[in-house]
Amino acid sequence: MECKIKKGDTVEIISGKLEEKGKRGEVIKVLPSKDRLVISGLNMHTKHQRQVQTQGRTVAPGKVKFEAPMHISNVMVVCPKCSKATRVGIERIDNKAVRICKKCKAQIDD
User: Fold this and answer.
1) DSSP code at position 51
2) Rounded to whole angstroms, how far apart are CA atoms 36 and 63?
3) Which DSSP category does 6 fall into?
4) In angstroms, what is the C-alpha Rg of the chain?
5) 85-86 β-sheet, strand order
6) 74: phi then psi, degrees, rounded to nearest 5
7) Residue range 11-55, pLDDT digits in tens
8) Rounded to two decimals, what is the model's pTM?
């Protein structure tokens, strides 16, 4: 299935952890094969890292915080014009597929 969310889009979390619900962030990475995406500053997880030495460099031990991937169905794209979380439609304009906001009919792609 084609993913209608791209890197650089602003998205709003619509379901999941209560403290994350309703927050907005920018998409850093999209993983289409797993239907997941990574949002900057949201869905933070902690990993306990042991000291590792690779290629002459040493990685310091301790707790490492990172943005974990989140399922695409838990977020909605925020329209840049009306600033609301919306579904995305696709229309053909000048032989190009363009993403459209379903609420205000504005183009999401620039």
Assistant:
1) P
2) 24
3) -
4) 18
5) 70-71, 36-39, 24-31, 10-13, 75-78, 85-86
6) -90, 0
7) 999 998 888 899 999 999 999 999 999 999 998 999 999 988 888
8) 0.80
